[in-house]
Amino acid sequence: MLAAVELYGKQGSTLSIEFKWQRPDVAISSYPNSVTPKLIESCINKAIQEGWQSDTAGPAYKYYCDLDQHRTGFSN
């Protein structure tokens, strides 16, 4: 599953977040995962720590998220 994040109202680099699971409506799993606002927030913060600059124009910054809501406790 993929998510894209951009800075509102300014042109800059897009953050492309790739999650390790499929969308809940197509995945067959005993532990379906959802993308929650807290999980997105965590990915944004980690991508910034790794060097993503949201306000600098350039190619999309690719970030691979290996977290899931079950291991983090993120529910919202």
Detailed description of the structure:
This protein is of the alpha+beta class and 76 residues long. It has one domain (2-72). It is built from two helices and three strands. A three-stranded mixed sheet has the order 1-2-3, covered by helices on one side. Helix 1 links the parallel strand 2 and strand 3. The chain starts with a strand and ends with a helix.
SS elements, strand count: 3
Alpha-beta classification: alpha+beta
N-end to C-end Cα span: 18 Å
What portion of residues is helical? 10-25%
How many structural domains are formed by the residues? 1
Shape: elongated
What number is the mean pLDDT?
Answer: 81
* Helical segment count: 2
Return residue spans where pLDDT drops below 50 for at least 5 consecutive residues: none
Q: Mind summarizing the main beta sheet?
A: 3 strands, mixed
Run of helices and strands: EEHEH
Radius of gyration: 13 Å
In percent terms, what proportion of residues is strand? 15-25%
* Widest β-sheet, arrangement of strands: 1-2-3
Key features of this structure:
2 helices; 24% helix; three-stranded mixed β-sheet; alpha+beta; single chain; 76 residues; 18% strand
Reconstruct the topology from this structure:
Blueprint: E1 2-5, E2 15-19, H1 37-50, E3 61-65, H2 69-72
Parallel strand pairs: 2-3
Antiparallel strand pairs: 1-2
Short description:
The protein has two helices and three strands; from the N terminus they run E-E-H-E-H. The protein has 76 residues and is of the alpha+beta class.
